[in-house]
Amino acid sequence: MPPGPSRQLEEAVGFTDEHLVPLVDDGLGNSAYLVGLGDGRALAVDASRDLRALRAAAERRGLTVAFAADTHLHADFLTGAVQLAADDGAAVLASAAGRRAYPHIPLADGDEIDLGGLTLRALATPGHTDEHLSFLLLDGPRELGVFTGGSLIVGSAARTDLLGAERAEELARAQYRSLRRLTELPDTTAVWPTHGAGSFCSAPPGTERTTTIGAQKAANDLLAAPDEDTFVHRLLGSLGTYPAYFDHLAESNRKGPAVLTSTPGQAPLTAGAVRALIAAGAHLVDARPVTEFAAGHIAGAVSNALRPTFATWLGWLLPDDASLVVVLGPRQDPAEPAWQAAKIGYDRLTGRLDGGMDAWRADDGRVETIQLVTADRIGDRPVLDVRQDAEFEAGHIPGAGHRELGTLAADTHDCADGTVVMCGHGERAMTAASLLARNGARGLAVLVGGADD
After folding, report:
1. What pLDDT does residue 297 have?
2. Which pairs with CB-CB distance under 8 Å and at least 24 residues apart come from 250-253?
3. Which of 237, 189, 196, 243 has its CA nearest to residue 216?
4. Cα–Cα distances in Å, from 202 out to 82, 218, 239, 432, 453?
5. Using 50, 70 and 90 to split pLDDT, how confident is the model at 15?
6. Following DSSP, what letter does each residue of 52-67 receive, concatenated?
7. Which of 59, 168, 171, 319 is deepest in the core (most CB within 10 A)?
8. What's the rounded Cα separation, in Å, for the pair 35 and 345?
9. Closest CA to 11 of 213, 192, 188
10. Adjacent-strand bridge partners of 31
11. Cα separation of 65 and 173, whole Å?
12. Could you give the strand order of the β-sheet that contains 190-193, starting from the edge strand earlier in sequence?
């Protein structure tokens, strides 16, 4: 009798704990991986342009990245492989079908790379993208694990509509065949996906980020589909919206992101300089916490509280070809928004307001406020819920209007004066309120908390 899912996980843990380090980006819902090769060298898989966590992990273990593998042309972050090649001399491993415009070792189905004791085998697994590869890690003939990128993920499979709605079904059928191929691996084979909980590239139901082939055969609803048509219906039916910047980032990854020659940061700007930039068309991003933004902010500023999802909402709501000026609180790290912006190719952070809102007020700058209200103070005011469709459908205030936050930047949504804007915790609601106020809505309030409150 083959071992059950829990036994399979136990068998995979030994290698994982000793040699493989998952590096989770909670904001994007992704995992990169650092694999020690036993001789001071390492393999990096699906590393993003923000290499801080990977470099720290490598330094702690005395590792130098010798290989940087990308499973596909990512739509949600810029690859860090180009930077690793420039800084560490890493050999970039990627699909030949991706036609990348920078030096790399082009791989096709079945190609193998000798890592020095271990072997990496490319498996063509199209679906999430046309050129998608999974990488099977072998110790001699033994399958240690497979880096599945945006193919098989925990409890699901990654979305297939990133190349356009007209190709979503075609790619879903390719995804079906790719997942079936992966399930032919031994049940004990570890599965190391890139996309996971919180990623707009996927919609997994749980928080586990790694698994085994056997565990997924036992628990993944998509793998339980009785036929291809059912699989396609289930996968396409699970897809929600995704950030606007996804539509062009894959091409940026094909061309290759610019190599960073210095640590991303933001120059300090006087209040007068900020006014001039705004007049010239710059966007003002206020990264302070919701309560501080509510108490006083610069007219026209977009609230985007500095948190792990800062990059997602920056890329969803603001253009990448305009200058961006950031307002921070006194205890916030100026490097953090710069790194998050660089991760998605937003390299035009012109600077930050030096001295923050105190400096703006001292320079006679006009300040606006937005009211915060608790659930018991909504009364008969109109309510606008800006959560994702699936969140709204799972439960909402009776009579509440609904628009996803991601739609508000692209149009001038009519919003009654005095509307209470709400989301799950308050950050997205404040972002929405700031956009609505910029479009002329007045007397807005933001719900402290969410639907449960």
Report:
1. 98
2. 250/73, 250/74, 250/75, 250/129, 250/162, 251/73, 252/78, 252/345, 253/70, 253/73, 253/74, 253/78, 253/79, 253/100
3. 189
4. 25, 20, 8, 24, 28
5. low
6. HHHHHHHHHHT-EEEE
7. 171
8. 26
9. 188
10. 24
11. 36
12. 112-114, 119-124, 133-139, 142-149, 190-193, 211-212
Question: How many angstroms separate the CA atoms of 364 and 141, rounded?
Answer: 71
Contact between 344 and 249 under an 8 Å Cβ cutoff? The reply is yes
- pTM exceeding 0.85: yes
* Strand ranges in 299-345 using DSSP code E only, listed in sequence order: 302-303, 324-327
How far is Cα of residue 180 from the mean position of the Cα atoms in its chain? Answer: 26
Angle at 396 between CA 390 and CA 399, to 5 degrees: 125
> Is there a contact between 304 and 344 (Cβ–Cβ < 8 Å)?
no
The residue assigned the tokens 């937005």 is 370
308: β partners: none
In 3D space, the residue among 218, 194, 213, 220 whose CA is nearest the CA of residue 9 turns out to be 213
- Enter the DSSP assignment of 217: H
